[in-house]
Amino acid sequence: MKKLLGAMVACAAFAGPAAAEPPVVVELYTSQGCSSCPPADEILAKLAKKPGVIALALHVDYWDYIGWKDAFARPEHTKRQKAYAAKAGARTIYTPQMVIAGVDHVVGARPMDVVDLLQVHKARPAVMQLTARRDGGEVAIDGTVPVPAQGALVVQLVRYAPEETVAIKRGENAGLTVNYHNIVRDWQVLGEWDGAEALELRVEAPGEEPAVVIVQKPGPGEIVAAARVE
To answer: What is the tens place of the pLDDT at every residue in 139-159?
Structure first.
């Protein structure tokens, strides 16, 4: 993995106003071909509008064989879900599944379980401040040194489409028209950061699609910090 060498500055170089409550990342693994997924897609739509939550829909490709190919599905999403399962010691993957803050796995159509876990993660103190902003065709990323130290961390840039409507013509959801939200289009690993010094990084991000930056333990593991690109 690419190391983010030369992308760090002394801790004192990062200064600014006190950070707001850090957002909690919710990943929904879903598919247009899964009959159990529309209720979870509706829950994600509500979470996408909720302050303090970064809700992301990762469409997987393993339902495509039953008659409807999900145009949003990417094999990389399936690979990421499998990596989460392996980390958790699970033998199977399923949809709909939500992964909260990189550590808690719940059935995506159980809203009360999701809400309870969001409250748990919101109550945890932030270990670092992370900001991301557009500067022309680039994204400028700044992060403080994690306290306590977290070890090696992976810095990622995620691009997504806010909303799209799909009329599903075949498969388990044939005849349904579904509004999908925060559909992940690209999940780019920028590199590995040791967290020993503050993070200062600029990356190319042309276009107007919304984006978020995620700092996460390898595995994938716990999400240490996340920020919307302002």
So the answer is: 999 999 999 999 999 999 999
C-alpha–C-alpha distance, residues 174 and 77, integer Å: 23
The angle subtended at Cα 225 by Cα 219 and Cα 227, nearest 5°, is: 125
How many angstroms separate the CA atoms of 160 and 49, rounded?
A: 15
DSSP codes of every residue in 51-101: TTEEEEEEE-STTGGGS---TT--HHHHHHHHHHHHHHT-S---SSEEEET
Write out the two tokens for 180.
Answer: 């999908």
d(CA 147, CA 107): 32
How high is the pLDDT of residue 109? 80
Q: How far apart are CA 16 and CA 115, in angstroms?
A: 31
User: For residue 112, what is the enclosing H or E element?
Assistant: helix 111-122
180 close to 72: Cβ distance less than 8 angstroms: yes
Q: Are strands 198-204 and 138-143 parallel, antiparallel or unpaired?
A: antiparallel
Helices (H) and strands (E) in the chain, counts: 3, 12
Distances (CA, A) of 95 to 28, 74, 99: 8, 14, 11
* Pair of tokens at residue 225: 């910090």
Structure confidence at residue 20 (pLDDT): 61
